[in-house]
Amino acid sequence: MTELTEDVIAFLSDGTRTAKLGYVAADGRPLVAPVWFVVDGGQLVFNTGRDTAKGRALARDPRVVLCCDDDRPPFSFVQVQGTATTSEDLDEVRAFATRIGGRYMGAERAEEFGRRNGVPGELLVRVTPTKVLKAFDLAD
């Protein structure tokens, strides 16, 4: 499967699950970092700093993988392999930083997080899926 289906979008959008982002360091080591994200138009979207390890890695190699899981029985996960594109358009960065902040910190703090993370030097990252794996209710 190469697209986010309705059941995958519902799973990814439920609550405040973080995604674990897999990317490759300059020396070839695989790295993983948690990211806050939203689903938008069939893509996963998150913010990161241009000069962070993630930002530098994405500039070198846009291939990434994100994995979200539900660690409660009966256990489920979604893995999204894809290609990342970045934007430094401040209006876009701030709009998504606000949306992401609202998801994870609540609507009352959304604007605060938008202002904090929608600044020069921040990137908006869009991951377009190339392969999607899902496994729901593994222990049933």
TrEMBL record:
Keywords annotated in UniProt: Oxidoreductase
Record-level GO cellular component terms: cytosol
Record bears the keyword Plastid: no
Protein name, UniProt field: F420-dependent protein
Organism domain of life: Bacteria
Keyword field contains rRNA-binding: no
SUPFAM superfamilies, per the entry: FMN-binding split barrel
Record-linked Pfam families: PNPOx_N (PF01243)
Ranges of residues in domain Pyridoxamine 5'-phosphate oxidase N-terminal: 15-132
Organism: Mycolicibacterium obuense
Gene Ontology MF terms: coenzyme F420 binding; oxidoreductase activity, acting on the CH-CH group of donors
